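Below is one such record:
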Amino acid sequence: MSTRTRTPSAAQIRWMNAAVVYEAMRAGEPCTATELMTATELSRPTVHTTCDWLIAQGLVLEMPSDAAQDDRPGRPARRYRSDPRAGFVVSLDIHERRVTAAVADLTGRVCGELSREISTDSSLGSQVTVHGPAIVRDVITTAGIVPEAVWQVCVSIPAPVQSHAYAPSTAAQYRAGTRGLITELDRTLPWPVVAENDANLAMIGEHWQGAAQGLDNAVLLDVCEHGFGAGLIINGQLVRGSTGIAGEMTAVNLLIGMGPSGGVPRKAAQLGAEAVGRARTVAGAKHRLPANAGRLVGLADGDPDRVTTEMVFAAYDGGDPVARRIVNRLGAIVARPVAMLSTFLDPELVVICGLSAEMAERLMPVIEERTLDLYRRQFAAPAPRLSLAALAGRATVLGGVRRALNEVEGRLFGSSHSDRWSAASMRTADVR
């Protein structure tokens, strides 16, 4: 087997140099060639040549020379600054009941964000084509950005997006609309579109600006409405698998008793209804519940059909022993996929995402306790470090911003997964 290293071409070297120099000045502060040389370890001629190329692309500005800031004799040093508003990206987050869109400049700074509740629709494709374009155009207009300045859109959807062969099970009917969705998005939106799984984007967001910053191995467990999903960063790379379903956890939902329509909130209400039903059965022919039946039974007025997730946690806060058992069981349910992912992948951190703030406050201590208990009883290894998502409900939309920027930079500076487009071609692309 040959071990010869492939030598990059001159064009590849130029793209790599441009990416390194552009990254060094991404913060937007003016900098000199000397400062860029220090940051990039490139030579002075290479830095100047690269900056000239970036200026020609419209990505970098040459600032007026200021002799007062340069105490050296002779010609003042050239100063450069990235132009964050040379282009923009949009992140579109699609959920069953809500759509969110954010527009950001080339540094990732969000310039505008909108979120709207929508009526539940069994067709994900319908949601994307009806609600998606409208909110994207509105957020762009609100931010004062012309459509021609948008270079990329990233769309988050709650399903695998890479596979052409994977057919979602009947347990995920809502997600069955993803087949052909990318084609429909390309037809509907007048900009380049990339679609990505929502848990993957939440992981990207937390890795970029949240709890997993600086880590090469991290897992995000999305405790979502339909059960569990996961976003995986291993050895610094997002893991999608051969057909895009890495992180899909339907089998885990079934194994731990969540059921095909699972989800921790629904499970809480289900367990609460069962407990109230048992209490009413015990009351039997008396037709009256005892005064000491418990706070949960009282909140539901003894009717299992009236039990909600909020009632269960309100009873938990009031010290109801039945509600405490339910919360302990929920913690054990979440601890199992945490332990499974950790033993398979050995991450530095497991980020828990998808819980409401109120639910997370009550469940996280129990999840940590149950995870430790699992490791003590079954695994000869230290338990993983756990953290709530630092970005909370914005992890996915911010991950979409970062994913869109990755696409832009891949096309600008060269990538094995992207075509190489010049910034000028992006700027002058026809917008329908």
Notes: The radius of gyration is 26 Å.
